Amino acid sequence: MRVLQVKEVTHSYGRRKWLGRSELRPPVLSGVSLTIESGFCLGLLGTSGAGKSTLGKVILGLEKPQKGQVLFQGQDIYHGSTQVRRELRRDMQVVFQDCYSAVNPRMTAGQIIGEPLDNYERLSVQEQKRTVENLLERVGLRPEDRNKFPHQFSGGQLQRINIARAIALKPKLIVLDESVSSLDMVHQMHILSLLGELKSSLGLSYLFITHDIRAAYTVCDGIAVMEQGELIEYCDDKDGIFESIHPAVQRLIASILPEHPADRLPS
Ligand SMILES: Nc1ncnc2c1ncn2[C@@H]1O[C@H](COP(=O)(O)OP(=O)(O)OP(=O)(O)O)[C@@H](O)[C@H]1O
């Protein structure tokens, strides 16, 4: 089943004054189309400023595009009733790069994870406590961690809490915007393996936005590449990326360092 369909999306940020006239700024997204099937993880790669996060915001309903459509489970997210859009928002969650600014430092882990449940579910105090504890265990933390505050966790642990909050409502799609980029290599590998496990067990779909082709290759089924607001490559099978003849994609591939330092020396 098709979870997400982005159709010919074009977007620019605001207007600028030019020779006394007001005109739209140049587009940061130009005619972008892509689809994500149920249970699929699509990696979205590209250099800084390519428009990846903007596309993520358009998909999440946070930036209405000037042209094109975003269909989530077949429904246009910018044209449904308030009720329909509220339900769509429940099924589409996000995990950002900066795990610290994504949480309220005065809330406990239990309150952070419980927030979407407060908004959408009517659970008793006991049910909510049990659900939060299950979610903590699901992401590799302990039930008693629900009483801790954000500053009492490492970056990797806090990102697990953000992931627990994102899966609390059993969404269909999670947009992961550079979600592992601020973590060290060891934590990155742990979070990538957690994401892979959750995808299989919960039947999730991901849009995995990253600069890091290695991370994308580890977690994704397919890979798309953006440059200057356009989608320049789209591979349903991630291995297809290595066949790309596009110079920008070849530069991304060339940026992968060989694993052994000796192999990194110029010949
Ligand atoms: N709120 C905004 N207002 C105006 N311009 C913006 C805004 N957000 C992003 N831009 C511009 O849009 C372009 C695309 O930015 P975007 O953050 O989508 O790229 P990106 O590929 O995610 O980059 P990065 O990997 O560095 O986060 C950039 O030129 C950026 O300066």
Number of helices: 8
CATH architecture of the domain at 2-16 and 24-104 and 171-255: 3-Layer(aba) Sandwich
Give the proportion of residues in helices: 25-40%
- The topology string of helices and strands comes to EEEEEHEEHEHHHEHEHEEH
Largest sheet report: 6 strands, mixed
The CATH H-level superfamily of the domain at 2-16 and 24-104 and 171-255 is P-loop containing nucleotide triphosphate hydrolases
Bound molecules: adenosine-5'-triphosphate
Taken from the alpha-carbon principal axes, the silhouette is: globular
Distance between the termini: 49 Å
CATH topology of the domain at 2-16 and 24-104 and 171-255: Rossmann fold
**Overall pLDDT level:** 91
- Please identify the top-level CATH class of the domain at 2-16 and 24-104 and 171-255: Alpha Beta
Tell me the β content.
25-35%
Secondary structure: number of strands:
12
CA-based gyration radius: 20 Å
Structural class, from secondary structure content? alpha/beta
Poorly predicted spans: none
Sequence of strands across the biggest β-sheet: 8-9-10-5-11-12
Protein name: Nickel import ATP-binding protein NikE
GO molecular function, one term: ATP binding
Organism: Paenibacillus farraposensis
InterPro entries: AAA+_ATPase (IPR003593), ABC_transp_ATP-bind (IPR050319), ABC_transporter-like_ATP-bd (IPR003439), ABC_transporter-like_CS (IPR017871), Nickel_NikE (IPR014137), P-loop_NTPase (IPR027417)
